[in-house]
């Protein structure tokens, strides 16, 4: 079906280009013209590329084949055009790159015919026939983007020859059979802005010279076999926006230098081997943080009260950390954008903060399997909004007020496992400190205010 849609799109594209193309545009040279046909035939021989696109490919080409001026035109010279981008693998009707045949074979050496190539993209092209990664590192210093997404038969390693790509800005290799370690020479690619190497078979440690990648904005090494400590040099990546090391075997603690990641918005270190280091206060220095995910590491300790400095956070994943103590009420006070909060499978005690009721954006709250106690302090409106995404099972001393929740246990089976509170309990807000001379009167007034607010909301 994708092939039929693509062919139809090609005819429309061809018709429009026939109307808009002028004679003044320079032609693509015959070597590159023929090489494009060879690449297309190699990736999908079922489509008659030469018949569909018989003319100059810089005037009329399939989506994903992009030309550009390498010598600008003048009054006496029409200039020179060459192939600048090649993107293969049908993504969608909005991005209809030439579709790849899963059984196709591909020789990367064909690409050596494109001396000005800047971007190379393959999506789900190499599924059965093995294709080596190594030849792609010989494409020359002009390449700026090298992207492989979901190509399980791509194999090889990140050898030192990758340093040939001195102008590389974006390296994406996900869902492949690529293995080995990150070479020491990787730090020489100082133009890199994105390194996404998730879902491969890479291993070894993260080299210290990663600190040389000063322009790096995205570092994603998730779903591999990396191990060892996070190098202290990670804190020198001042431009980093995303750091995802999840689902590896990293261990040790979190280096204090991480406070240098002032621009970081997403930090995902979940499901590694970090242990007995607690949740460090250094995270509060990351003022732009929106997502903080540490689940699946036996960190221990308490939840630090750092949320007044991290008001933009919208996702917290603290599942299975071995956390103890109370849940800070400041999470509900300051994190008005919070939509996801996972505190399940810990050793948390105390009551559920009433301030969570203020989290109007919250769509999932998981408190399962802790030692929380007391009355579940949520209104019927709050429970109705979150629905099945409210997890409270596994807290034997937690109870609910049947007057408030009524039939909601039918909507959320977790609520059906909670016992009914024997008496109505007045939730306890954290009261401000008062002097001994005014404590008696202040306490009475504060208590009345708390009771008024509570009965108003329920």
From TrEMBL:
Q: Source organism's superkingdom?
A: Eukaryota
Q: Which GO terms describe its cellular component?
A: apical plasma membrane
List, alphabetically, the Pfam families matched. Answer: LRR_1, LRR_8
Q: What is its main location?
A: membrane
Molecular function (GO) terms for this protein are:
protein kinase activity
Q: What does the entry give for GO biological process?
A: defense response; pollen tube growth; response to other organism
Q: Which SMART domains match?
A: LRR_TYP
Alphabetic keyword roster: Glycoprotein, Leucine-rich repeat, Membrane, Repeat, Signal
Output this protein's name: Leucine-rich repeat domain superfamily
Originating species: Helianthus annuus
């Amino acid at each position: 079906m994708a092939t039929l849609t693509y062919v139809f799109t090609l005819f429309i594209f061809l018709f429009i280009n026939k109307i808009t193309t002028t004679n003044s545009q320079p032609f693509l040279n015959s070597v590159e013209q023929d090489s494009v046909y060879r690449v297309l035939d190699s990736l999908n021989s079922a489509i008659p590329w030469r018949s569909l696109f018989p003319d100059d490919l810089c005037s009329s080409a399939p989506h994903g084949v992009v030309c550009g001026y390498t010598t600008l035109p003048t009054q006496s010279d029409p200039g020179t055009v060459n192939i600048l981008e090649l993107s293969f693998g049908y993504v969608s009707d909005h991005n209809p790159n030439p579709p790849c045949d899963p059984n196709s074979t591909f020789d990367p050496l064909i690409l050596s015919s494109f001396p000005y190539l800047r971007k190379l993209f393959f999506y789900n092209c190499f599924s059965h026939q093995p294709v080596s990664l190594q030849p792609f590192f010989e494409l020359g210093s002009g390449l700026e983007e090298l992207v492989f997404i979901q190509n399980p038969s791509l194999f090889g390693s990140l050898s030192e020859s990758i340093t040939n790509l001195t102008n590389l800005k974006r390296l994406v290799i996900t869902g492949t059979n690529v293995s080995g370690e990150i070479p020491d020479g990787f730090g020489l690619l100082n133009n890199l802005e994105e390194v996404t190497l998730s879902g491969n078979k890479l291993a070894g440690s993260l080299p210290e010279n990663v600190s040389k990648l000063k322009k790096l904005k995205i570092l994603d090494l998730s779903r591999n076999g990396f191990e060892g400590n996070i190098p202290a040099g990670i804190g020198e990546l001042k431009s980093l926006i995303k750091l995802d090391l999840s689902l590896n075997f990293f261990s040790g603690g979190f280096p204090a230098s991480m406070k240098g990641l002032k621009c970081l918005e997403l930090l995902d270190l979940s499901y590694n081997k970090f242990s007995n280091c607690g949740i460090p206060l250094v995270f509060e220095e990351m003022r732009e943080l929106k997502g903080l995910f540490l689940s699946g590491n036996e960190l221990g300790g308490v939840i630090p009260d750092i949320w007044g400095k991290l008001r933009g956070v919208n996702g917290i994943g603290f599942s299975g950390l071995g956390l103890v103590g109370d849940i800070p009420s400041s999470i509900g006070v300051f994190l008005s954008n919070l939509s996801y909060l996972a505190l399940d499978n810990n050793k948390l005690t105390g009551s559920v903060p009433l301030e969570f009721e203020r989290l109007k954006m919250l769509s999932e709250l998981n408190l399962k399997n802790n030692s929380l106690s007391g009355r579940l302090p949520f209104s019927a409106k709050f429970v109705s909004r979150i629905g099945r995404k409210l997890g409270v099972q596994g807290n034997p001393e937690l109870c609910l007020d049947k007057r408030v929740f009524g039939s909601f246990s039918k909507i959320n089976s977790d609520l059906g496992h909670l016992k009914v509170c024997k008496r109505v309990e007045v939730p306890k807000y954290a009261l401000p400190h008062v002097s001994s001379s005014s404590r008696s009167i202040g306490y009475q007034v504060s208590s009345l205010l708390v009771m008024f607010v509570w009965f108003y909301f329920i």
